[in-house]
Amino acid sequence: MKSTFTPALSRRGFLAGSAAAGAAVSVRPAWADTTTPFTLRAAPGRARLVPEPWGETDIWCYGGAVPGPEIRVRQGDRLRIAVANALDEDTTVHWHGLRVPNAMDGVPHLTQAPIAPGETFTYEFEAVDAGTFWYHPHQRSFEQVGRGLYGALIIEEANPPRADREMVWVLDDWRLTQEAGIAEDFGGFHDMSHDGRLGNTVTINGRVPDALPVQAGERVRLRLINAANARIFALDFGELAPQVIALDGQPVTPHAPQHARGWVVIGPAMRVDLMIDMTGAPGETLTITDRFFSDRNFEVVDLAYSETPLRDAPPDWDMALAPNPLPEPDLARARRHDVTFTGGMMGGMVERQMGLSGSGGMMGGGMMNRMHDGGIWFVNGMAAEGHILDPMLVLERDASHVIAMTNATAFHHPIHLHGHSFRVIGRNGTPTAHREWQDTVLMAPRERVEIAFVADNPGDWMFHCHILEHQAGGMMGVIRVA
Length: 482
Ligand code: C2O
Ligand code: CU
Hints:
Oligomer: single chain
Distance between the termini: 53 Å
CATH topology of the largest domain: Immunoglobulin-like
Structural class: mainly beta
Strand content: 35-45%
Bound molecules: CU-O-CU linkage, copper (II) ion
Largest sheet: 7 strands, mixed
Number of domains: 3
CATH class of the largest domain: Mainly Beta
Radius of gyration: 21 Å
Number of helices: 6
């Protein structure tokens, strides 16, 4: 298992050290204090993403670090967060996956005026659902998130399932130069029309990680958050048998990862909560490998077992999480809506193969028609420019809705809806085993996915691909709940 990850900045390029992956700073009490809002300051900064002999990297970040401060409150707490913009450009903060009121959703122009340089905007909302969430800008996110503006937002259950330890891993993928600077080629046409901005350096909590110490027999709750612009991970945990207990923050019946080979697949913006029993032997080392691109496997992190076991056999504690207060869609009465995604390199070919009209897609039948209006990706034939859009769908409030989505492109897309969680009820006509609640669903090329939810949160909500270069290339729309 050799890393083929390029260039020299893969983990194997460095000497092993002893420190754990930089732990995110948690400042719990302040976040839930409604008298003095906590200030989250977006500003340029520096971070040690990669070890010596490389230098620090100039980034943009919250609170002087990447990831930004871990926001951690209890379910039902009220959050009041003042976002101060010390960048040279407008920004906003979106609370990804949280069911907040529309005015707090952080979408520039659509739900608020962008926060200008030097200005502050205070967000205030209740933590309705427990789970693993994150925050990031929604203004030019392909660059602002790509430079390091993001952080974890953890909402604790009143009664969490028992574990010996919890870890939060915010995954990112950076495109660095040989001097460990951020490559400045944001928004390039090739990235936009293919897989997005894939990088060459994967970090956990803002660092290329050293080996993480674990103990034989311990049970760890691992909260994975994918903050990368474009990289989809398929994490191979080797001989470990992680159990999925939540997806996108929402509890799911504990189950082995559904990938045929047991890999944990996590697209951009998605979260997966795992329970992992450390079943290896004292003194052993286990490597976690990303295998999403079969020709570009690479080693993400090593787990190093200490010499002393914690216990001899895995505990038999219950793993199930209590459900969040989500309204259950009534499938028999749900209104149906169709959404088709087209475009991108080779998109015209896929559309023809799928029996669609071949309307969009670079290098496809419709390329010339499409080039002149600037879009690369299309949602029901429209490419978005900016955030002020006529709604592509208007959903009756408090009614149940099914959206049948078709990915008529040659690429994967993690499709995100703001303001709601939805059940993923079917893939390619087959009901899903767990009817999982998600806010971001990964669609494979040519895949058809059906989602269902009650449109109970009024307002105009973004609906977009979370490969941020695809979003910038038009793969975005507005769904109105009225
Ligand atoms: Cu995480 Cu519209 O975004
Ligand atoms: Cu996409």
